[in-house]
Amino acid sequence: MHLREGSPDTPNLKRERKLGFYERFRVALHDLGYYNNVSIIARYSKATKVLNSWPQSVLRGFSYAIQKHPELSTTVVRDEDGDLYFQRLSTVNLERLVTFKTLEDIEGKEVDTKLITLSTSENNKGFENTSTTPSWRAIALRDPNDCDSFRIAFIWHHVIGDGRSGLAIHQTLLQAFQLFEDDIDCKSNRPATMRDFTRVPTSAKQLFTSMEEMLPSSSAPVATSPLQGEKWAGKNYNDNSPIVTRLGRIRIPAKSVQEVLSKCRKYGTTMTALLQAIVAKTLLDQVPYDRIRTAVAVSLRRFFDPTLGIDDSIMGLWISTYTTEYHKTQFRKNADGLESLWQVSQENTAQINRVIANGGKDVEIMGLMGVKNYSVAVKSRVGQPRDNSFGLTNLGVFKAAPTDERNGGVILDDMFFSQSCHANGAAFQICIVTVQGGDMNIVFNWQEGVVTQEEIEGVMGGVKDLMGQIASSE
């Protein structure tokens, strides 16, 4: 992504705030080709009226989202002193950002295979930053044989938002499609109000300030002593070109998800804590090493002053991680094979609770604040072992307000969440999202050449088997 110098006097552009430390870090990773983007594909059903006015209905949905989220109309520029700024456009050309396809355009027999194919392709493409194009894109997908549902893939640069930002966009699009049904001409099935989608006005809302200005005063966390034994973290960090992202997926049926959740409540733990333990166990079963280390994403939104209005409905980059080490001896053999899994899961839950109780102080991400040049810092570690064996991000359950006749009938009933590989990050990443009352989709992403296909397939198979065992256990 080539960052052009921006000028506050350039027509149709407005200089916004400087980028915060984590935003600058994400830009550096993208520009080096180490990390491209995040994506969520969502399915919208009971959407006959929206489909009848395709494609204008989708463009109108994004017009609505642009008004709600100022990040959708910002670009990143570098000033004459080398500082990075957000710059806002006065209008957005949606015809350059939203592409329309059919499922038949994508390789694969099953729908899930097609979605993974699409996600893989998009996660391997970065953004060409210009003074007129925001750093996001979308693909609207129709199935010619389905007159009731469609899908939208939203892909965005990490600098404008974390994973929950993608949920916020799909929540906004859902609202737009529900409201949209009230603005249809009953004779023509077209929007009663037509718009120029090449010049969509941008939001009047202000960008939120950067993360470091909203967290409680904190310092870098103190490192803990590692467990004994050799750690597995894939092949050493390298920046061989091209850096290729590979994806795999597991779908856990809704009924099994509910059964597992009930077991989590029984054992006083959470789905995220359990999934950590499950992946750790299956990975240690696959590799000839004694220990592994994981980094789990944690949203920082809950730690901000509530008067700031930062919740799950808005875009922004507000995440950190907490790290945990596991040793093979923690997953001892026993009668039912699950006792140690629940014990480790409870320990994970206790760690999550400690992070929450600390109120956002001493979060691990703050260790990046003191870095002067992120590009130099990450390149200096080429050839060194990776810190983490795997990363895990669980966006939780997407919940939408119930619909009624006054609020449109469109619903969102399925999601795929993925991201590009992290060239200097964990050996592989796991992205998880569930729609309320629906299936859980677990997507694995890794860099080609860092993890073997056999290792990943072994972990995916182990996770699926253990989730099934837990769901069917007494």
From TrEMBL:
Pfam families documented for this protein: AATase
Coiled-coil region list: none
Entry's Gene Ontology molecular function annotations: N-acetyltransferase activity
Protein name: Alcohol acetyltransferase
The species this protein was found in: Arthrobotrys conoides
Upper taxonomic lineage: Eukaryota, Fungi, Dikarya, Ascomycota, Pezizomycotina
